[in-house]
Amino acid sequence: MTDLPVAQVLERVDANLDASVERLFDILRIPSVSTDPAFTEHVNRAAHWMSDELTGLGFTASVRPTTGHPMVVAQHPGPGGDAPHILYYGHYDVQPADPLELWNSGPFEPVLVDAERGKRIVARGAVDDKGQVMTWIEAFRAWRDVHGTLPCRITVLLEGEEECGSPSLDPFMAANVDDLKADVCVVCDTGMWDVDQPAITYSLRGMVYQEVTIHGPSRDLHSGMYGGVVVNPLNLLAHILGELHDGKGRVQIPHFYDDVIPVGANEKAQWESLGYDEKAAMADIGLPSAGGGEAGFNALERQWARPTCDVNGILGGYVDAGAKTVIAREAMAKISCRLVPDQDPDAVATNLQKFITDRLPEGYTASFVGLGGSPAIRVPTDSPYLGAAMQGLSDVFGKEAYLIGTGGSIPAVGSIRKYLGIDSILLGFGLEDDRVHSPNEKFELVCFHNGIRSNAAVLARMAGIAKAKS
After folding, report:
1. Three-state DSSP class for 390?
2. Other beta carbons less than 10 A from residue 19's beta carbon
3. CA–CA distance from 51 to each of 47, 54, 153, 156, 179 (Å)?
4. How far apart are CA 399 and CA 390, in angstroms?
5. Rounded mean pLDDT of the chain?
6. According to the 3-state scheme, what is the secondary structure of 146-195?
7. Distances (CA, A) of 120 to 60, 132, 139, 245, 444
8. Which of 165, 214, 223, 309 could crosslink 227 through cysteines, CB 3.0-4.6 Å?
């Protein structure tokens, strides 16, 4: 696979697993919640922790300011010669831990818990994305400990705003192209098919996220005096949101489906061969079946290849304990649309806004705040780097990796292609039941362990690409 033997590296990974877990716990203890300004100090602390860790592994690393939270950029020369240059991208920020009362332990007090698959790591950020970032950092450590260097030239980019829409990412990439250039990017922020079956994600849905506020009367009103006299902004907003879908689950935003590329017969057949257990997946979240979305498509199609529109939150009026008979002067909702190729995020955002404003009565207005947007991505499946990643996973798991899609979005993948001109290998080790963005988020210890081993093996396979070409 490479002139540097990987077997010794894998042995080192196994021997140091406990220490790897302790380092992961250290970064999990830092509450780097990027969406809440109250946590800014902790976000900065997490960035410096990552920079210091990479510096200790022989990288030239720095924490770089942006208009928001900082980026971490680190570079390692590798063995020299014609070794491939790999960019590793991840994020060190996390989602808010709310609702705190639903956690079985402190969200920023990581614990190892016994479960049906062995031990699992429970904490906010355990799998999204601190745990997955640490799989490749620990792989770097094992390579350095055994061979004194890394088998490839490595650049690392870690951001602190992924969970709040990555507003600084594009400007930073545009201004730092020379520092970030590479042959390919590896992103560990996706999942496996199951605990024993590795997978590489080749398609990501895009995203449009809008916050809308409907403004009505000039002040809050007594519902006895004005109820039935004025249009209640909350009632109006609820009515508009209810019209986003028809009775068959189709989104009613104008031109929403104009550019959607249907799934091909071969691709659909491949997905059907995966043996997806819809009932088991739904049972995990307490539901009997996947009853949402468009009629006429199976669950995987709706998740991986069909666009969606969802209300993520509604706020307005009186929401504290007890009664207050009030008609609120305004009402707010957060709306996200997941996109598929070839939908244009800007066009979808514009049409969503028009859908809402066209339904406002006289005297009522709507204001909008964009909270992020990115196109859908499909990664070429004939890349030699994807082939190397598939081989590395096979080396560890003893079976061929699946090629899968995901319903989620990673805006950085589109930005990496746009500004750096390279594709990304989406190499993830999470599971569907990891409670991402929910209380009691977890990362199975076996997945963390195999993630480190896999990243070490993939490095070896990628190092062999240049030699094979020469």
Report:
1. helix
2. 11
3. 6, 5, 17, 10, 16
4. 10
5. 94
6. HHCCCCCEEEEEEECCHHHCCCCHHHHHHHCHHHHCCCEEEECCCECCEC
7. 33, 14, 20, 39, 4
8. 223
Tokens of 206: 């895009």
The tokens describing 21, both together, are: 């877990």
Tell me the backbone φ, ψ of residue 210, rounded to 5 degrees: -130, 140
Please choose, from the candidates 276, 79, 46, 313, the residue with its C-alpha nearest in 3D space to the C-alpha of residue 159: 46
70 contacts: CB under 8 Å, gap ≥ 6: 43, 44, 47, 63, 64, 160
- The confidence band for 279, taking pLDDT boundaries of 50, 70 and 90, is confident
DSSP state of 231: -
* Residue 436 CB-half CA count within 13 A: 16
Instruction: Report whether 458 contacts 7 (CB < 8 A).
Output: no
- CA 30 to CA 392: how far, in whole Å? 32
pLDDT, average across residues 176-196: 96
DSSP string, 301-329: HHHHTS-EEEEEEEEES--SSS---EE-S
- Specify the pTM: 0.84
Q: Tell me what pLDDT residue 3 has.
A: 59
